[in-house]
Amino acid sequence: MTNPITWLGAGTLNWLRSMGAATYFFVDLLKNSPAAVRRFMLVVAQIHAIGNLSLVIILASGVAVGFVLALQMYYALVTYGATESLGLIVNLALVRELGPVVTALLFAGRAGTSLTAEIGLMKAGEQLAAMEMMAIDPKSRVLAPRFLGGIVSMPILAILFSTVGILGAYVVAVLLIGVDEGNFWSIMQGRVDVWRDVGNGIVKSAVFGLICTFVALYQGYETEATPEGVAYATTRTVVISSLGVLGMDFILTALMFSTP
Amino acid sequence: MSKKGIETLVGAFVLLGILGLLFLALKAANLASFSSRDTYTLQARFDNIGGLKVRAPVRSAGVTVGRVSGISLDGKTYQGVVTMELEKGFQFPKDTSAKILTAGLLGDQYIGLEPGGDEKNLIAGDVIKQTQSAVVLENLIGQFLFNKAADAGSGEGGGKK
After folding, report:
1. Paired sense of beta strands B97-102 and B130-132, if any
2. Residues of A with CB below 8 A from B32's CB?
3. Residue of B41, B66, B70, B39 lying closest to B53 (CA atoms)
4. pTM of the predicted model as reported, rounded to 2 decimal places
5. β-pair partners for B121
6. What's the pLDDT tens digit per position in B14-51?
7. Contacts of B24 in chain A (CB under 8 A)
8. Which of A206, A232, A238, B148 has the fewest Cβ atoms nearer than 10 Å?
9. B70 φ, ψ to 5°?
């Protein structure tokens, strides 16, 4: 049984140490990003792996969320005779919040885990060490292209999520329930601002993309080089990036949309 | 997969993203409706602006002709100064009056312009002189109760005489 004060001190120091390591890792990634931009094919390949291959689950979830939002909102709004505002509510909910956040959560599960597992296995198989032996910096050859690929893919996926969500809401509200089509679009157009709502949503999704990709790469890079270590790192990727996204979303929403 | 194949797929992915962005900006938001057209600025002073907000529509005969771009308080007269941007295509006479109205019972507030008969038109930077403030429900109820009480009071007084 150690002294509780010692225990507290050790815990704090450990936490600070891991924070410091993560910060160094982040700075290294940023430093190596220009090199990755010069070798653009590597980034393109990663956009394919991270973005294109996540497309199906993002689109399917987007449509489903749009359907359900429209249905539920209809039941609430029909009481007040305000069903025309359905499009507006669905649009704002998707563009401001659900688009970036749900996409980021799915992104952490679909792309983040695969990044962690890939990097973790590369480390376990000592591929990263082998690269260093050949004087190739794995951070610029392996990690930075993935980092950029994630940051580029995430806003595109979030935009598509919101788009298919709104189209899904249109299908349910206008085609199935029979809300007036003109009002559905015009009330939406009257109240949704391109810069404030759509623009901020995209900024949000870029930040979430950065968080998810960074956490995934860091967990993969720092993993213990064993099967259990990789499994543990993959789990942590999902947990940490999800919590990070949710926490960051609160901060960003407070900054962006606090004034009415 | 071949290099070309991946490039094509990524190109399609990015293109899809751009199309989605265009849809959000043009079909699902207000980029197409106002920001691109020429506007001019007018001001109006109200005793009470109620729940009017920046970006609320300015309508004439129910047609949206502009938007509220700024709201501030005049430190001397304690009136709310509303700045609005109107489309260049819509010109209004000098004696146009501005009202703060509510869309529906619980809807948003907007500014309604009622054109007068003056031959000269308002130009950029002009102040609309005739204004009617927002209806504040509390004042309305207060007035109603006050009138009721006054009626009841005079009725009893009449009975005793």
Report:
1. parallel
2. 189
3. B70
4. 0.78
5. B93
6. 999 999 999 988 888 776 655 556 788 888 888 888 87
7. 95, 159, 162-163, 166, 194, 198
8. B148
9. -165, 150
